[in-house]
Amino acid sequence: MRVLGIDTSLRSSGVAVVESLAGRNTALEYGRIHNPDKLPLSECLRRIDGGIREIIGRTKPDLAAIEDIFFAKNARTSLVLGEARGVVIAACAASGIPVYQYEPRRVKKAIAGNGAADKLQVRRMIMVLLGLKDEPQEDAGDALAIALCHINSRSPVAELNPQPI
């Protein structure tokens, strides 16, 4: 199974492809889709769409996993994040890739064993779990964690398995 993990953001979306084969997880690639502060919203969304479609075309994931919507104090921030998530979901859907979503606490618990773990603790566990020599960039690390969360969430009991959105 190949999972495309995406940590959606307008300015720096983390992306990662993790392959799970015979009980071994391997990071095939990871990084981020970076949009400079000066770019208008529409151009940022176009670049996110293109970046996701390019990764899908190159790596051929079986599915995608994204972080679920979280509460934001600023309504404008929530709206922009929703627009970016919509672009990601639409790009995956256009490629026939089902999308699963996970709450941030569930991702942290799946990786670090604690839903309140900090980002550094999660990235360090990602390094151990995937045998990475260097610490990934923060957004890429979040995307790796989301992908691994999906892999670790699969269960032989069907009702415990997450459903695509």
Number of helices: 5
Strand composition percent? 15-25%
N to C succession of SSEs: EEEHEHEHHH
- Average pLDDT taken over every residue: 91
Name the poorly predicted regions: none
Helix content: 40-55%
Q: How many β-strand runs? A: 5
Query: Order of strands side by side in the largest beta sheet?
Result: 3-2-1-4-5
What structural class should be given to the helix and strand makeup? alpha/beta
N-to-C terminal Cα separation, in Å? Answer: 19 Å
Overall outline: globular
Can you summarize the main beta sheet?
5 strands, mixed
Radius of gyration: 15 Å
Task: Classify the oligomer.
Answer: single chain
What brief labels describe this structure?
165 residues, 5-stranded mixed β-sheet, alpha/beta, 5 strands, 46% helix
Explain this structure.
There is one protein chain. The protein is α/β, with parallel strands linked by helices and 165 residues long. It contains five helices and five strands. Strands 3-2-1-4-5 form a five-stranded mixed beta sheet. The longest helix is centred in the middle third of the chain and has 20 residues. The radius of gyration is 15 Å and the shape is globular. The two termini are 19 Å apart. The model has no long low-confidence stretch (mean pLDDT 91).
Task: Furnish the topology, listing elements before pairings.
Blueprint: E1 2-7, E2 12-21, E3 24-34, H1 41-59, E4 63-67, H2 75-94, E5 99-102, H3 104-112, H4 119-130, H5 138-153
Parallel strand pairs: 1-4, 4-5
Antiparallel strand pairs: 1-2, 2-3
Helix pairs in contact: 1-2, 3-5, 4-5
